[in-house]
Request: fold
Amino acid sequence: MTPLLELDHVTRRFPLGRRQAVHAVEDVSLRLDPGETLAVVGESGCGKSTVARLAVGLIAPTRGTVRIGGTPTSTRMDRATRRHVQFVSQNPWSALNPRKTIGHSVGQPLAVHGLCPSRAERAARVAELLEQVGLPAHYAARRPSGVSGGELQRVTVARALAARPRAIVLDEPTASLDVGVKATVINLLLDLRASLGLSYVLITHELDIARHLATRIAVMYLGRIVEQGPAEQVFTAPRHPYTRMLLAAVPVPDPARRGLVALTGEVPSAVHPPPGCAFHPRCPYVADGCRERVPPLLAVGDRPSDRHSACLRDGEIPVIPVQA
Reply:
């Protein structure tokens, strides 16, 4: 099966002067298959949003290859392939032109991809898209300043749907929203996935959102994937020490029941990352080898194709079942 989206050993560094660079993404490999929701989680600054921008071709990798439907984004892609993966940014206020109507913004992909040649067809399709995300058709005449944040995020989802994608990359889609509005947006995404057969790449630091939406989880730390696997397995039996500490930070009625160690310390500099395992300065299980070798992301567990962990001591550290 050809993945809808694939990152193959992708590295992205941002030059910082003549001799330094920000190590934003280091040797990341990910794939999104039809019907999946892949959540990329981790602390702020770990490289999640850079992965999102790489996935949709907004920036090019320093090394490695990004493919959409099997076609590298570095090559000239036809429009049909390009529109298969669309993007929803974390800030809906900056995603739309404040001087243009909502109808104009939602209708732009239709014009660009030649999906609705006439103005009348575009207007009808815009109305349909707005209603599909739970907004009345007359919102097409409004400007972004005339709607709430939750409604505006629905508009950005409608614009992404206009291109009839097979997958949508969602970069922190609920980060700027109130709790009640978040639930509305999450339910919308679930409904659209079921009705349209969409796949998602969800970039988020909110683990409760990932738990509701994701079928697979990729955990990032300082630009690298440290654990991957089915969402239920990662949430209930995390293998990497960093994943355990992330889950320990999620509020629950009785944290002591989980047996997890809380996350301590600060994320190291992405300009001068630590040698060896980047997590070793904060890891309670650190050994000498962790300070010297970068651990590869290796298959683990009873079904190796499902679970991967980048910890040199994976086989030594007992897996602790986690209660939600």
Summary: Residues 155 and 189 are 13 Å apart (CA to CA). The first strand starts at residue 5 and ends at 16. The first helix runs from residue 48 to 55. The chain is about 30% helix and 20% strand.
